[in-house]
Design goal:
3-stranded antiparallel sheet; 647 residues; alpha/beta; 7-stranded mixed sheet; 3 domains; FAD/NAD(P)-binding domain; 18 strands
Length: 647
Amino acid sequence: MNKHWDVIVYGATPGGIGAAIGAARRGNKTLLIEPTRWVGGMMTSGLGRTDIDWLEASGAIYREFAGKVLNYYTNRYGADSEQVAACNGGMFFEPSLAAKLFHEMIENEPLLELKCLHSVMSAVVTDSRLTSIVVSSQEEETERQWSAAVFIDGTYEGDLAAMAGVPFETGRESRDQWNEEYAGVLYMNFDETKEVLPGSTGEGDERIQAYNYRLCLTKVPTNRAAVVQPPVYRREDYISLAGDVAAGRIRSIRDVLNILPVPGGKTDANNHHYCMCSSDLPEGNEGYIEGDRQVREDIIIRHKHYIQGLLWFLQQDESLPNSFREEASEWGYAADEFVDTDNFPPQLYVREGRRIHGEYVFTENDARLAPGLERSPIHYDSIAVGAYAIDSHAVRKREPAGQNVALEGFLGLGWITEVYQIPYGVMIPRKVEGLLVPVAVSSTHMGLGTIRMEPCWMQLGFAAGVAADLAISKGTLLREVTVDVLQDELLKHNQLISFFRDIDPLTAEGKAIQYFGAKGVFTSYYAAPAEPISARLASSIIVLARSLPGGRGLPSLPASGNIMPAGVDMGPRFPKSEPSPEQYWADNPLLTRAIFVRWLDAVHRGTASGAASEDRSEISEALKQQEPSIGEFCQSVFRILNSRRSG
C-alpha cells in the first residue's frame, strides 16, 4: 500500500525530532519513522549533560526543550531545589525525563505521526529524485511503500541518504585535502598543554572516532542496581589499568570514567579524556557504518559487553588495590532508568557515521577565526549556529607511540574554536533531489567534530523541517529554496543564524543584526547596535541589500544633508562656496535622523509595501533624537526586505 505524506523523517534522533516538529508545525502532514522502540537518540540514552556552554548559542527548538526541563524540575521540586540547581537552566537532565518530554513534544503536534520499530529497507529514486521508500515493520513483519514530497534523513549513520544513492565520505581526511591544521593522524596530549607528539603525520585514513555508551550511574543505595559480569568478559582488555594504578596515573574510578552529575542523584558517565583505557572502544566500530543489521548488532553487543566488563573489572579484579575496588563498588546503574534494558542505555553512541557530499563541505576552518576577521567565516546561507569545541575521540587503541598520555586521534581544540555559522548547503546532497540530511551532514572528520553535538543537530533538523515546508509551499526544489526567505522564517521561530556578544538575539533588532551578520556586514562578534550608524556603513548596507531578494530598486541615501523641503525658498545660496561633498561627509560622518527619514520616505514612494511607511511613522515620533543607531537602521532595512519578500 502506497501511502503519501508531505514530509517523511527517518530517525527519531534529536535532529530527526527537530525536523519533524519543524515541518509539522508549519502545516505539513509529517511521518517520523524510528527503527528502534526508543526516541530521542543519545539525549534519552544517557547523554544528560548538554554539550554546549550556554543556551544563548543554541537553536529555538533546543531552547524549547531545555525550558521544558527547567519547568519540570521547578514545578515538581521547587525553584530553590537541588534538582533545579543541578539541571543548569534545563541543559542537564535525567534520561527518563528527556524521553518523557520528547514524547510529549511529538504527541502535541496533531500533524505529526510517529512509527517506531519500522526500518527503511530501500529507497526509490526516479529521475534523480527520492520519491518513496520501502519500509519494514518489525511488529507486523510486513513491508510497505510510502511516498512524500520531501524526505529528511535524521539518522546518525546517514542510512536513508546512502540508500538513495547520495555519495558520502567516511574516515579522516589528510591535512592537505582541506587545509586543516589538525587533520589526519595525530597524537595529542589532552592535558592543558595540548602537546603534539612525534608520529603526528597528518595522513588521512578510514578510521573513525570511537563509540561508547553514556552510562547513568548512581551512588544512592536505594536506587542502585548492581554491576554484573557480562556474558563475554575479556580481562585482557582492561589489565593495563592495573599498571596505570601502580604507576600513579590513575587513583580512582573517577580517573577512568568522566562521572558528572545530573539531577536525581544520577550521573552522565562518559569516556575519560586522560585515561588510556576508558569506556570508549577504539577500533571496535570498524565496519559499523556500512555494515548490515547483523554486523551492527554484533558491534553493539561487543561495546555493551566491553563497558559492562570495564565496570566489573574496576569493582572486582584483584590486580587493583582493595581501596580502589571498594570505592568503585559504591557505584551502580540507576535502577529507575532504562528499566526495559536492564538499566543499561539502549543507544550506542555513534559519534560519527557517513558524511554526505553536499553543496558545502564544513571543515575545521569554518569553526576557527577567519583570516582578516574577528570571527569565524561568514556564510550568507547560514541557518544555524554551533558553539562546541572541535574534538575527536580516539581512533586507535593504546600503543607505545602515545607515551601513556595520548591515544591517536583523540584531540580537543577548545582554545581555538569560535562560535560559528552553519550553511544550508551542508544538508543539501549532491545528485539527489527531494532529500535533506541535517545529521550526517557534508563535512570533514574535523568539521563534524564540532557539529556533532545534539543541540546543534536539533537546530539543523528544525531548519530542515522549515526548508521542507518552503519547498513544498513554493513548489521548488530544496536546493532552490530562497535562503533569505528560509532565514526570515527561521528568525521568526527564534532560531539563531549568527552569534553576537552584544545583542539580544530574540528581539526584532537582534534578528535583523543576525541576518546582516550572515551577509558579511559585521566582521566581529560585536555589532555595537546602540552606537550611531555612520553614513559609510549605512550606504554599504543599502548596496548589499540591493543584491538580496526584496532589495532591488532600493534608492541611494540622499547625497546631501542640506535638502530643503519643497515649497521652501532655497535662495539666496552660493553652493560652490560651501564645503565640497568630500569635505562635508568627512566633517559629518554619521547618518543624521533627517537623512534617514528622507531615505525611508523615498523607499516608501518606490514600493507597494507599507514597511517603509511603518518605519517612517515610528521614527517621526523620535525626530529629536540625534542619530539613528546601527541596530535601528539594520532593523528598518531588514523589515523592508522581509516585507517585500513575503508580499
